[in-house]
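INFO batch 0412 | record 1 of 1 | parsing
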Amino acid sequence: MESEVLWKMEIIRKAEELVEKEMSGNDASHDAAHAFRVRDLALSLAHEETLSTSPDSILIVELAALLHDIGDYKYISHLRQRSLRNFFRVKA
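INFO prediction complete | emitting tokens
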């Protein structure tokens, strides 16, 4: 159980690092702070809707909110798009 919690924390930490790396330099409407605000709002709504009883649901909500603008065509080059695809590939 503890290892699962640590794994989820590590996934979130990596997603936060990706957001900061990929969204730095974007205008204020779509910078890393925007993604973190969206995450805070999404988690607040998830708790209000009692999704907080399911840790997996909370993880999905948090990751979806953090990553919702990653790869947005308005802010990404083709080279960065390729590196993002590699980041999200699951390694067996």
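INFO post-check: Residues 71 and 80 are 8 Å apart (CA to CA).
INFO record closed
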